């Protein structure tokens, strides 16, 4: 496999950018440019900064350069019967580790085993002064210093360049099966998915679309079979492809080109208006909806204690993420300046103001 | 905002905004807010007992106005002196902020005030069939605020995680007196930067947490306990790796070293084989139908070269008896030497043997007793240096030895603290783990949250 440490060149690129006041746009595999806002500036590809640096299966820890393709990481783990617990979407063959962590996106397993950030143990980054910093490490627990590695996760490259990431990885479940239940309304589906989630079942994904609720169970064989009997439903045989398509948004629901909104809600929130047109994932905590009326949607979702963001398509020069309160917005600006005082990284990628 | 520090004016304004019983100024009352479990002590000038978020907000704003140091405090059970008000000023104790605000079992979260004890949370959610994962041994006495500020956890972390993985959102007041809400009441709180996790583990230096939305986990139906005894630490560490690599992750994987076994044998009636070099206490949980199967899977992973004895408890009583061996360790330790330095370091699991061997060497070199136990599944080892502080030579040796312990940990890619934090006592060692550029960034983060530096001054970095 390719191995290349691009850090020295990056130092050079960043110091030149500072001198020329030239904003930079950090790009991994360019698979998630549809997400967030378009950044401006000169493109810096991270793809050369590639390679798994350290993987010790018995430690359940993997450290890699950020340009390493996600599929390479997943294949490496699979060889040792391990996996990434947050089941990240790739959204394209070229997806890199860095882009995945910068966007902080997680797949169907998210509500039951945690998000990308929950598995980030440590990071090496370059800040906006071209300095290299390290946070956390390769151990499972660490309370020495602020948890900056998690702050970088989901910051969409606005704080600095993610150079290397150490991730906690997990053993693959021994068995995974999917059950399908019929629910004629979103309301009953939401109730059922959450009722199951309050019990100690080995649920690893739950979604609902057009009258059908898909429940994935994983764990040791006994545990899965016991849960399956308790929960009930038809076993679904093409499940791996189904969940792959949900994760990658290849499921037919996602083929529309209209503005696609992601609604984040407390999972048991009752069915909202037009719920029959929504794809419910994460047991009801993530609901996908096409709409041209973003503001009304954001207001509605906020009333229920959640937030809505424009995930795909639509007008992306406006804000796509739910607005921050004034003190939070100010804190965000200050964080940005603490990391990137010359504002050279991914200007406008997350919010229009930075 | 550069008014000089002014206790009298602060007090006058506090009295205006809070109830008389929320403000303590009598030395006798102040005394008990000046120390924690590190045995360090300093006198606060004023203790404030907020009843709700608004009281905290008012206090922080006044402390900014009068340039007063402000130290948040839960129940003072911390072991690193993080609540000790070394610069005097105000101690803000959350003891009266102890309400459960919202309980939403259907959504699997609960919103609590920061002063609720860990046990208070567990009791409130148990009847709905849930628990909150963090389980420090001090659960009955420590607060959610303290748990979050230190990212405190216990044995369960190996399967269920620490506060960082089990908090959905926070309400807090930053050092400059702004209210912030981080995360949302959902399983996916992503808007903007992840300030929730930044505040968790920040030891009260960035903001005062007033409310927290805690993620709940359904309580498993059944639990089994196993005890495995190994010839040496190397075989035990290999067993830990095997156990962690199979899919039935245990909910506790505790370890004690040969020296600790020796203590137990000497100071308790517990029976342990003569040639025991390390012991693992393992707990497996799951559904009634699967528990036997999963326990067998873990037991088979525990087997291997160097295993001397493996016992599985099949009843509550037997399980208690197995744990009894482990529990007799703490009283035994007290018998050995008057003074104990207790460190909680973390190394990668494969480095545990190197660490333990290194510690044995240090013990011999410095002529003190070192006993080790801890959460093996995540490499979190409690290193106990036992000595007589009245003996000047031993005392000096112990601190030289401690220095070497930290060297050893860092050399083995470890960290100086897995759960107890930095506080006062590890301040001098932080710069060995964190390089100057990174420390500088952390100071800048601190400055953005707390520009006047009033929150918990004299700690951390
Ligand atoms: C017998 C015993 C056993 C223990 N076992 C464990 C264990 O198993 N695992 C473990 O991790 N720890 C353990 N501890 C240490 C301690 O109990 C924990 O660290 C606990 O989380 C501290 O909670 P507290 O409420 O006492 O916090 P305090 O000691 O009062 O405060 C700790 C830190 O939190 C800050 N703080 C408190 N409340 C807030 C708030 N609302 N907002 C912001 N900052 C705040 C303080 O400023 C301070 O920095 C043990 C201690 C004892 C005495």
Account of the 3D structure:
The complex is a heterodimer of chains A (354) and B (461). Chain A contains ten helices and 17 strands. The two termini of chain A are 37 Å apart. Chain A is globular, with a radius of gyration of 21 Å. In chain A, the strands form five sheets. A five-stranded antiparallel beta sheet of chain A has the order 3-4-8-6-7. By secondary structure, chain A is of the alpha+beta class. With 461 residues, chain B is of the alpha+beta class. Among the domains of chain B are: 100-218, Uridine Diphospho-n-acetylenolpyruvylglucosamine Reductase, domain 3; 222-330, Alpha-Beta Plaits; 337-411, Alpha-Beta Plaits (2-Layer Sandwich), CATH 3.30.70.2740. Chain B has 16 helices and 18 strands. Chain B has helices at residues 7-17, 27-31, 53-65, 118-126, 144-150, 157-160, 195-199, 233-245, 258-267, 291-302, 316-327, 329-336, 352-366, 392-411, 427-433, 436-449; strands at 23-24, 46-48, 70-73, 90-93, 100-104, 109-113, 130-131, 167-174, 179-183, 207-215, 217-218, 222-230, 252-257, 278-286, 307-312, 339-346, 369-375, 380-387. The interface between A and B is large, with 86 and 99 residues.
Specify the biggest β-sheet of chain A. 5 strands, antiparallel
Give a list of the ligands.
flavin-adenine dinucleotide
Average pLDDT taken over every residue of chain B:
92
Low-confidence stretches of chain A: none
Just give the CATH class of the domain at 100-218 in chain B. Answer: Alpha Beta
Strands of the largest sheet of chain A, in order across it? Answer: 3-4-8-6-7
**Assembly status:** heterodimer
Helix/strand-derived class of chain A? alpha+beta
Major sheet details of chain B: 7 strands, antiparallel
- Write the CATH architecture name of the domain at 100-218 in chain B: 2-Layer Sandwich
| DSSP strand tally of chain A | 17
List low-confidence stretches of chain B.
Answer: none
- The amount of helix of chain B comes to 25-40%
Q: What spatial form of chain A do the alpha-carbon principal axes imply? A: globular
Structure annotation, total helices of chain B: 16
Task: Provide the structure class of chain B.
Answer: alpha+beta
C-alpha geometry of chain B: globular
Strand order of the largest sheet of chain B: 15-12-14-13-17-18-16
Distance between the termini of chain B: 23 Å
How helical, in percent, are the residues of chain A?
25-40%
Gyration radius of chain A (Cα, Å) is 21 Å
